[in-house]
Every structure is written in structure tokens, then in C-alpha cells.
Specification:
single chain, 159 residues, alpha/beta, Endonuclease, Chain A
């Protein structure tokens, strides 16, 4: 059965969010992955506003505002969200989120137990995001390495 994982208690999500806002203001990003930073850089280069909260600057909060570590459905913290467009971008490490299984190259029983658990949590979380009628964009680490993530984002962030 699915336990904890992305279903963290509200107090833990609030604590993580406060930590991320503080780190952002100090230009420290220790708990953000390098592959997330690549996606954030793409947004900045394409004139999107990166925020850690909707309250960062209400004047600039609009269709070009991307919120990092966005609390969603009061139970998830997604990597990036554009609330005005109802788009979520999740950045997935190939190993941690089971790319080899997802693309059919490996059986689920051959994966590490942590990866199997992550796949189950991801499936449950993604289903809830889609049921909420939001667009979900998955960016895999290999998409970042080969540069294909740009094409994936451009499909959804056309201006």
C-alpha cells in the first residue's frame, strides 16, 4: 500500500516550502535537483517569472508566472506549476522514477524497491493531478541530457 512519500503531512509541506523560500532568497538551492534547475533556467530565458509562492509579487503573478514546489490539492508538492494556465511540470530522474520500466525495458519486479514504490506513488499522484483537470508535463532526466525537454516545454508554453 502507498505510505507517506508524496502524501506528506501539511506541517512537513509547510516546513519544506518555508525552507525553499528562505533558500531562494539567499540564492541557495541545496534541496533542488540540478535537472530542476535546468528547467527553471529555460523558463527564465523564455521570460517566465519564477516564484516560490503566489505571494512573491502579486503584480507579476500572471500567465507567465511559474511557481516552484507548488502545493497542489493540499497533499502534493509539485516541481513547477503555472496556476493561471493549470499546467504542472514534473521533473523525473530516470532511475528514481523507473524510466526503464516505463519504456518497457525492464520488469517492475527487477527494479529496486524504492523505485517500485516511487512508480506507485507517481501513478497515484499523476492520476489525481489529471483528475483535477490540470495538464501534466513529465520531463525525464534523459530529455534534459539530450535537449528534447525544450521541445516538450514549447508544446505547452506557446505564447
Amino acid at each position: 500500500m502507498l505510505t507517506r512519500g508524496y502524501l506528506n503531512p501539511q506541517s512537513q509541506r509547510n516546513s519544506k516550502r518555508a525552507e525553499m523560500i528562505k533558500k531562494h532568497s539567499n540564492k541557495e538551492f541545496a534541496t533542488v535537483s540540478q535537472i530542476e534547475d535546468v528547467v527553471a533556467e529555460w523558463f527564465v530565458k523564455n521570460n517566465y517569472n519564477i516564484c516560490w509562492t503566489e505571494n512573491d509579487d502579486p503584480v507579476i503573478f500572471n500567465e507567465r508566472s511559474i511557481i516552484r514546489q507548488y502545493p497542489f490539492l493540499d497533499r502534493y508538492c509539485v516541481d513547477f506549476a503555472c496556476p493561471k494556465r493549470e499546467i504542472i511540470v514534473e521533473v523525473l530522474g530516470d532511475w528514481w522514477h523507473g524510466w526503464e520500466f516505463t519504456c518497457g525495458r525492464q520488469k517492475i519486479e527487477d527494479l529496486h524497491s524504492k523505485v517500485r514504490n516511487n512508480i506507485g506513488l507517481d501513478e497515484f499522484r499523476f492520476k489525481n493531478i489529471l483528475n483535477a483537470q490540470w495538464t501534466l508535463i513529465k520531463i525525464w532526466k534523459h530529455d534534459i541530457k539530450n535537449g528534447n525537454f525544450v521541445n516538450i516545454l514549447k508544446q505547452h508554453f506557446k505564447d
